[in-house]
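Go through this chain.

——
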Amino acid sequence: MIGIFDSGVGGLTVVKALQKQLPTLSFIYFGDTARTPYGTKGKETIIRYAIENTQFLIDHGAKVVLIACHTVSAVAMQSLKDKFNIPIFGVVEPAIHEALRISAHKKIGVIGTKATITSNIYTKSLTELDKSVKMFERSAGLLVPLVEERFWNRPETRRIVKYYLRPLKLQHVDTLILACTHYPFLSKVIQGIIGTRVKLVNPSESLIASFQEFLNHNDDIHQSLDDNSIQKFYVSDDPETFQKTALWWLGKKVDVLLN
């Protein structure tokens, strides 16, 4: 069983990528909707939430964990690897490598939550890999609650996205990392505002591609995962709203349990 967790509905972007690339693998998903957003929380709180979520998934049969949350990946990854003796994958590293691969002029923008941007993990990691990279980061905290409230196509959402992207447009970035798994819900709005010449990095897709590559080289772990398409969804609050979002994003109704 694969375990996936996020602060809310954003991790459904990882689920969608997983179902596209590895459709038969079973998974359990936990969305911590009662405590979202994580991006405004302090480091110790984020680490505590991440440990609790990972333990929940392991207690329910997870043998590997995919962290579908940039805030946790940026702040708590090492703490999770130190505490748990199972493979754990985050969204940051795959996104970094994808951005380097597709960026034509090495002018890379990043939008993310306050905690992710404050961690400086993208600028630090990308410039260590390639000193010629020019990084432009922007905190975009309001986008998570907009997605959680399903304000995907509202005029006010477009105005807020335009406000966040304006400094990056002025810097003429050629690649933009959507450094929060909630943001792909707004990818059409973001692409329309940033311009079609700018390539978007969807870290959910990068994560699953990286995970698939890992399985290709670790057959023992691949064989240990359930291959019978079982899907379980848990949330910590408001399963009805999560279910509506899942129906829209995944194209099918899913059962959602309250934990």
Notes: The chain has a mean pLDDT of 95. The longest helix spans residues 43-59. The longest strand covers residues 107-112. The chain has two domains: 2-90+205-258, 92-203.
